[in-house]
Amino acid sequence: MGSTLGSQQVSGQNGIVYAATTEAAGRAAVAAARRLVVKIGSSSLTTTAGGLDRERLQALVGTLAGHVGHDRELVLVSSGAIAAGLAPLRLPRRPTDLASQQAAASVGQGLLLREYAAEFGRHGRTVGQVLLTVDDVTRRVHYRNAYRTLRKLLDLAVVPIVNENDTVATDEIRFGDNDRLAALVAALIHAEALVLLTDVDGLWTGDPAHPASHRIDEVRSGDPLTGVQLGRSGRTGVGTGGMVTKVEAARIATGAGIPVLLSSADLAGAALEAEPVGTLFHPHPSRPSARLHWLAHATTARGRLHLDDGAVAAVVDRRKSLLPAGITGVDGGFSAGDPVDLVDTAGRPVARGLVNYDAVELPPLLGRTTADLATALGPEYEREVVHRDDLVLFTS
Ligand SMILES: Nc1ncnc2c1ncn2[C@@H]1O[C@H](COP(=O)(O)OP(=O)(O)O)[C@@H](O)[C@H]1O
Ligand SMILES: N[C@@H](CCC(=O)OP(=O)(O)O)C(=O)O
User: Fold this and answer.
1) pLDDT category, 237, cuts 50, 70, 90?
2) 152 is in an annotated binding site
């Protein structure tokens, strides 16, 4: 392949070719993306007095509407439902209990959508509301469903406005912030870029209010960000997660080969014109398959398999399938096909995989060779507990 946008081509582990870009080329790739996910945080949609900031929402939609058209698809992941519900419910600040947050989101989400529908409508665009739960992007059947819905909306030239379905999410199963959700949606729809918009222009070396801090222009994949202080939410008090969840989202998206630009909502236009604003996160040069990316980042383990040292070496060093002989214990109530974590003798997760047995089937099989099991129980017991193709390693 020839070089594009000043990029240098490199070959990934799976033989897939990726572009290792310069910063300028990476920014140009974001600006040229034909399928784009933009995420806007609550902090950028709220007035200092609380409540929805219509002017900022209008400015954002004006910018985005100018960047969506026949050659570009846009999915907007928008937070702000809880913040928008505060004023109508006369709540002075974001509540901390789940039930009140859900009530605020229930009131605010409708108001938020009404604004988006009106504003995008003024620019001749139709919007569709898509409320997702963790399960919708983590369980494979739901995941296909979510993909189909988003794909159909994009085919119909609709701008999907995505948010977490806060009213049904529980504390245990909840994203809370929308950063990770945006990254998973970007991977789900095979976006060519993810733009995270917040109330500060990019990732800084520390609290942006501190005079010694400065903006980081670009982050290469695998960069440990040593010395960077990732703080929690900003001054508005309505955001969730702060920089921690944004950097995590950037890692998820770049791990799927998607470049990420983190900037402020006020600079959305500049960011989409490849101007040197915000922080560019370069995509990982050797991304796993979409399926393994999903397994690593979008699943919640439904149980744990405890491995002896030999099994850890076989799975991690020699990339072998996991057999019953190397398993010493089982936790959880999973079913065949569920994601489970493979843990070493110290209990540290070393890999995640899709298990081929129900949890209740495994105890009598542990420590036994597949040949022994096939003779004693029948040929169907010769199968691996986790096949190597269904395994993704956690790098330490
Ligand atoms: N290293 C850092 N670089 C930039 N911003 C940071 C950093 N550490 C903490 N922050 C804070 O993170 C805030 C953005 O996160 P958050 O409030 O959750 O926004 P959003 O509502 O857009 O998701 C910023 O206002 C900033 O004060
Ligand atoms: N789903 C929630 C998102 C909560 C939130 O604060 O997210 P964010 O501002 O992206 O950190 C809402 O719409 O209020």
Assistant:
1) low
2) no
